[in-house]
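pasting for the record
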Amino acid sequence: MAHSRSARDFVALSDLHPNLARPNVIGLVIGKTDVRSFPDRKNIGTERYTFNFTIRDSPTYFINVQSWGREEYIRSLSESFRVGDCVTIENPLIQSKEAEREEKFNPVTPSGYKLLLSENHSVVKTSSCYDTDTRLLTLLHLPVKDPQDYYSLGDIVANGQSLHGRVLNVLAAVMAVGEPKYFMTSDKRKGQRCEVKLYDETERSFPIVCWDNESIQLAQSWIPQETVIFASDVRINFDKFRNCMTATVISKTIITTNPETAEANVLFSFIKESAQAGALPSPMKELPNETINLETVVDVYTVEQLKEKALQSDGKLEPVHGIIYGYISTLDIDESVSRVLRNRCSVCRFIVNEVSNTCTFCTDVSPEAKSTFASFDILVDVTDHTGTLRSCYLADCVAEDTLGCTVTSSPNWRTGLKVNLLSCKLADPIEASQSLLGRDWNYL
């Protein structure tokens, strides 16, 4: 009868060194990337496949693991375990890591080494932590960074665009988890996206976006208004389409679900108290208003079809994203300046009161900490061969891109159709004609 290995059969990750012969290690998987492929320079016309993961065997030590090989081997290995599983690795190659280069795209680890897996020599097995070392279970809820080293959501919003592109840590509660959305990229690769709304004592709603299957699957396990996460090394960006700050899960990110720290316990208490007081907004109210990746917008509509969709929506606020091949039939820039240029708050980017030039939205920020800036706020009509969409919003950064310059009230929506232009560029005539082929031309 085969017996389970004991903890004594494995080499501690902190004791690994390149001269160690045929080591066996065990660890909890705390991070994992999707499978990727690259052209094989040795065999022209073929591709090599790879994915990375990170394992941990103590509160202070964890290491990155890299695997390369044939597509069948790599995909099978990747599908055999998930974040939160316990794995044993037999005979990995121990190699010194180039910290500056490798940690640009991989989690920062305390180890000076990395593990390489060979299809012919290494073996990876999923095992139960209960059968090996129950101490590994406690690592699942322990952040890899100092639990006090994080930004509150309010700090991120307050710092605004000065944090654009920065990689930092976030501690927050989960307000809502969106449904995964799937699409095809311009180079015919399958893509996916999922947006999660976070909140804390300082901010009621903050988006974090997942673009890989691993983080999306992890996010689907989170319970809204109950789960707290510590996300280390997420990228912060300013989203010019929504005029707000967002976070993105990247290959460096390690997410700890329901961390067992004093800081997380304070947030857990806030969640409980807010829920009991009924102070939390509905988790689904703000989900439709999410970041739009223009590469995922591929459906082509005529004006007539969009109007029909609006009439069929039965009052629902679910947005429709699509492409129209048409022209701007009205661009009324001869209006008064106040109708073309609006002042926005530098903190929340909402339009400020025209009379007092002050923001009435972020009332918890002192007037001295707030300023205003001018932005475009233009209403345009968009027309194609089927009709006209009137009073479409061409605003802020999109207006600047369309008009090719920077900046030196809304009508009564009787049709229930409100249109925001996310991008406005010259169309390729051939592409436009091909997209419209097969449509009903009887009305021409």
